[in-house]
Amino acid sequence: MSARNPRLTRRHALGLGAALGLTALTQTAPSTAFATGATAAAAGYPKGLKPRLLTVFDESTLSLPERTLATTLQGLLARTGTEGLYLNLPSLGYNLWLGDLADRYGVRLQTGDLWKLLGRSRIDGYLLYKQGTPSVNVATSLAGLTGAVAVEESLEATAIRTGLRKVMDVRGKDDRWVLDRYWHRLRHDVVIEQRADIAERLRDYATMAGAFAFFDGNSAFRAEVVGKLDDDAAVIGWGDAANGEDRFVGPNSDAGVKAIPADHARNLSVLSGIREERFQQRGRLFDPALAAQGDLPKPDPDAHYVSFLITDGDNIQWMLGDFPTDQRWFGSPRRGELDLGWAVSPSLTDLAPTVLRWYYDRSPKDRFVVGPSGGGYVYPSRYPEAELRKHTSTLGRSMARADLSVVQIIDFDSFPDTRLWSSYLRQPEIDGLIYLEYSRYDQHKGKVVWAEGKPVVSARTMLWDGLPGADEASVTAELNAAPRDPSSTAGYSIVLWHAWSKTLDDVMTVVDGLAPHVKVIPPDTLVRMLGRNARP
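== GxGYxY motif-containing protein ==
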């Protein structure tokens, strides 16, 4: 996770496949069809409108410049609630979400031609940019303000033949130019951090939301941007993690803003357009051997209780992409053989509610907890006190909507700081926390501290390829030798399995080797049992 130990960077293998009162930016006024911005959910995330019809394109059939054009068009169409656009990747989860929009939510689907769709829209302007330069982010930022699509210089002649007029030539312009001139008219609760060399991903959401899209590494300019944001605002995307993700998540936290990993996410402008107010997990909250009319009786005194929990569930792009289909993770044929824990971002309640419901509907035994470290990826010890209070209050409401009760935390050397954890645990929706030391996760070996009468449980051990004591045989032996005393905090174990180096098959290898007295239960059950039976 940190530069001190590059092997522990969580995402080292990440390359996975207010209304805007607008005035003219140039002498030509923007189309009136896009004179207002996206609506905002209670948690502050902008949302599109549910489309009645989606024109679907296989992403691979479009050139990179066409994809940028398509996504800015997609973002603008998501403001209308009429005909929308969807970029499909049939081999990933996007095909599942598309089918769900049609089957559950009654959205009609059709195929079509990108330029004909553009011609049918009421959009009549374009912003001219040059591929591979910062001007693509400039065009993305201004698309939401002007109601114009982004057109790469190689497509300009076609755009003119289609009847579009040039609103502005932004070639040679950069993020500083946008910040200095238009910051007062862009959103301050959400910004998009996206590399200029990623042509299509996340740009639809930036356009729909009317949000500032930028990328400048871990620079003074970046610090200035996050410093200008509202308290507990969201930086959606991903920064420069070449020397560790803490290089940008840390400054975010210092400024009191959260990161939502999503730089490879597609179709958020469309997926956010569905409204779902409440969600219900299907998986068992309590182990059936313990359940008595929905309550927790006295546990087996000769048992040791363990939960297996995956890392990196805060990663929106992964949850949308290959997580649901890949056999390493949720797509494993062995999923369902045990009560397994998965982490998820509560931001999905607004950014992609159909996706969250899809996961819950297909999880008869799985249980979900909040990914690190709450409403987004933050280091709580570096969050200013007032902003952390706001963050955890908003988090509690989001967790109530999403039927979540436990939060993963990642931080540096903060495990004993019970005053810090009180900000989370005073929220009635939160039963407890699971603490992961940044480097390495199981440093505190299952110790528990208490705040507000609720437990903060550290990981006892972990599965992580190449690290000592983190292989299947070592983890199995440690669990089998762990104390059999559920009246003690030592009678419970959390095992974190590293999403990028271990698979569900590896988890099952451990489970298959456990002694009979080691009982696997979901992580939220474990937190509740520990809180009731192992008081300090």
